[in-house]
Predict the 3D structure of the following.
Amino acid sequence: MLSFLAVLIDGTIYASWLFLVAAGLTVIYGVMRILNMAHGSFYAIGAYAAASAIGWYFADGTGSAGVSFLILIGAALVAGLVVGTLVERGLLRFMYGRDETLMVIITYALLLILEDAMKIVFGVNPYFAYQPYTALGRSTIAGLKVSNYDLVLIGIAVAVGLALWGWLERTNLGKILRAVIHDREVARAMGVNVRRMFTLTFLIGTTLGALAGALTAPSISVVPGIGVEVIVLAFAVVVVGGMGSIEGAAVGALLLGLSRAAAVHFAPQFELFVIYGVMSLVLAIRPQGLFGRTLVRKI
Amino acid sequence: MKTVRSMTTPRPGRLAAGVAAVALASTMLTGAAGAAENGKFRIGIVTFLSGPAAGPFGIPSANAAKAIVEGLNKGALPAPYNTKGINGAEIEAVIIDEAGGATKQVEEFRNLVQRQKVDAVVGYISSGDCLAIAPVAEELKALTVFYDCGTSRLFNDDSKPKYAFRTGLDAAVDNIGAARYLAATKPNITKIAGIQQNYAWGQDSWSDFTLALAQTMPKVKVVENQMPKVFQGQYGAEISALSVKKPEVVHSSFWGGDMEAFVLQANARGLLDDATVVLTCGESALDRFKDQAPNGTIIGGRGPFGAFAPQNALNTWFVKAYTDTYSMAPTYPATKMAQAILGLKAAAEKAGASAGTVPVMDAIADAFKGSTFESVSGTVKMDRADGHQALQPISYGTYKYDPKTGKATIENVITFSGECVTPPDGTASDAWIKAGFPGAKCN
Amino acid sequence: MRLDKTELALVGLAVVLMLAGTLAAPGWLIFLITVALAKALVVQGVVMQMKAGLVSFGQGLFYCVGGYAVGMGGQFLGLNAGLVLLALGVIAAVVLAMVLGLLLTRYREIFFAMLSLAFSMILYGVLVKSQELGSTDGFNVKAWTLLGRTIEGGEQATHTVFILTVLTAATVAFILHRFYRSAMGMTCEAIRENEVRVEFLGLSPRWINYANYVAAAAVSALGGGLTALATGHVDPDMAYWTTSGEFVFIALLGGTGSVFAPFLAAIVFALVRTYAIEFLPNAWQMILGFTLLGIVVFLPKGLWSLFTRRAVAPVPSSSPTNARTGGVRA
């Protein structure tokens, strides 16, 4: 019984984390049709930025948890916007309209470059910025001890999801974006500045990636390579949910998160396969993902 | 819609020119590499400079190599290493990255030996790399000192090594030592659990540990073992699964960022209030745990290395030289790297070449085999695997953090002699453990 | 058999390479070229699918199957004849591809890429779980024989694997060159351009893709087997997604313009990487990244476009460029 509860709680926490990691990826793909291999690097940059900022804030051994949260989010915003702008203005805008697969390769090159750039900027020593994580303490739910930080993470994931959804479905700008998603050329013909929409989307996507990294940083040790580790996970979420769909990413994250928690508790030997297993299964049944639209075949 | 594509046809002239250019470039590059005749003793150092193993292991190792090489070239080390360089020849270190997998490392190993003409290679953290490199070292007759990788299979298979040596310890030693330490310090526990990274290291560590535990503490029940993917970072579900089983001790062979993340999360989730965790690689994060690892956490350093290294003139010099340059104390990978280079120097100088010259590899290998040399970790005997594997004690202790100074120390250290935790030659470690450690001499 | 210019060049290059390699080149360079050519065979598998518009981010699957077949054949089946081991890998890969292909050929674009990646990662997971196969450490390939001769270490072994690899690579390239100009090869390109139109011609893109997928698997397994023979070691990293990423990287580096391109690209890649590691040990990935970006920006058709010239007038792909395409029936 306790195990079922634990699966539910652990699964939801992991799902929230997965959703935060994947949200930026799916937004960028949805609007720009770019499968951003470098998404993990933005995650890592956010984590490094947050960990350095927190380390600096707590350098003298004192500081308040509340302020450290603001610093965390501030660091993510700055890192995501600055690096996102550099990449978009300096590289991607020259590549718009290229083949989708070629864009994958371009972002793969970007991943290689950013990995080493991070090493040069932040070094390879682990960053340990645990203060915000431990400051919140823990709660006991039916005998299971849970970190409050992780519960806050669920709240943030829900808020980010709702904000994205509301923005796309309920605002004017969101409607314009949906027009771009639906048909880029017609949107352009209607006077939409598609390139500006692209810039905006890319920055939102990278900032979301950096935010995910920043929110993860306090609960891990930030080391080189953490970005590469999350890419495939984020891809799995997005592919399961349907590329470019926010609802899809949320459902995909929940499905993968709960499956993984269940595997850990009841069948640890399958933990290693569960993500890819679920992904293959979903794709075998619904090739376009749970919320993906079937593409119209053009003659 | 892509409809119009230009047709392309090969232009033989350009093709020939291109092939010629590549061929020419390769010849030029090979020509540039014949620098082995500069009279220096060139050592190829291979360790992780990128990826998750770089921070905890690779960079401390590379730093130690630089510190030792610089000290040796100045003749600044205490006796018996107070002579300059190696056999009077200046040492030149070529440091390359171990990241990228075994296939790439085999290629880079050949490049080091045949292109860069190194006189010896010191390196390799990954067991897969060691396994792949060992036969190539024999094939190329290239003196190779493995300093860190822990696989029991390195000298176990039907290999007859001549040029490959390992100055670090077998990972089985870590886990036999951990089982013995638990038996000595926590004889009354009944429930134990484990969490390991799901790859060769974690799997082997856990199987060695559980086998050894069955011998040292036959009444203990193993209640759970979790095997998350390596570098996963998020251990929420695993920690719950462990907590539910209420173990008294949790064994983990985690290392690097994974280990730090697990300790942080397990501590925050209350798992470590009720259970003591045994970290076989814990020493490498001694400076970073701060108040996040509870006092009493059992940590090891894969031998008498890092904070477990004994007080002797060599280690005092090494700790000072390392701390002066890198403003932190050397952790166990650093000590191990220093040890490998010192072993190499000792062997090379025993090889009997005239002073100031670089001895041939065969002579160094002959001198290295079965040798005994002084090291930063005390006296090292190359006493296993027919004189190719170091035999040393292993230590475990408990973590103690002082919030006032912000420094962590290790207390309650117990050291088990090499003969106590290492199988004799010709016996595989798992068979030795299952048989109840026949012939073990414990202090 | 009439040979065209490319085929003549292929034979000539193979002979020159074998002579130059065994007589003049240093050991490390021979080894580097051997591994590069073996990997280039996997890249050929990627390119075969690229020509049909599919990008496989999981070609490491067959590379790994080929490699493990060589390793396990020696370890568990007691086989030690090199050619038999290679054949074993090809058979294993073909059987696996025939099963996976049934599912994969229903997918296009990014879904194909991700699903092929997922399959490769599942094999990776299975191997990591297999402690008797050494888990992530992998295991060493046992001593093997070629045409009855035992291949022992040293120069002789390096040269033998080198010649075997050059011969295999040349043979595969020869066959591929003919395949690309055959009716089916041409149809693959047509599928990339417009699948629906191909269907309207009465052909089945799905089954053509299927055959292509299986053939690509066989070629890639050969590459994996040769790599295992050359390095003497196999491990699950061969199936990890970054390995597959490297193959796609090399494929784009070379371009799809010619059967030579993957070989050239693999050798250039290996040289750039080894010198980047030597001279910039802390930034070699960055060098690779910039190289790749440079290629994409300045040579979008790959390195091979350095060796080609544009036709005087662009020829629309809808017009018959080869008389034989007219007679395709599937």
